[in-house]
Amino acid sequence: MTEPAAPQAPKPGPLHEVLVPGTPIAVLEPAIGTERYERLLTAAARFRDRLGRRTIWNVNSTAVGGGVAEMLQVLVGYIAGLDIAVRWMVIGGDPEFFAITKRLHTQALGITLRTTGPSVTSAGRRGNRRSPRSAGGRPPRRWACGRPAR
Fold first, then answer.
1. 2-35 burial, b if ≥16 CB within 10 A, otherwise e?
2. Per-domain residue ranges of the chain
3. Second label for 64, Cα 20 to 30 Å away, from 40, 73, 77, 90?
4. What is the pTM assigned to this prediction?
């Protein structure tokens, strides 16, 4: 199986696009078999029709390093290879901006982080998780499209 091409390095600034070349989806056929490959192509065609002129946007804080960036480098290439409109933007900001986005992200996942004491690190996250019900006995609000779900 051929490795996907590397994304183009982003330019410095508050918001920039990471250009990922499309990966020919045919490289997956030997791995997933003809039947699944045909189903993938059919599902992609239906999705393209439903998507219309809209675009799938991926926004994160880095183009390299970390799990999200590593997945996007591959997935954006495959999606583009299916001729589905997809873009990947990297947003910059100061530490306060990222502290706010981290809090929103963890709250959307139902995770409560300490607001005082040692900073949160990947090694220390376990001690920062609380059961959603432990916060006042009610589950967290779910979020959809950037606003609370009703």
1. eebeebeebeeeeebebebebbebeebeeeeeee
2. 15-91, 95-140
3. 40
4. 0.61
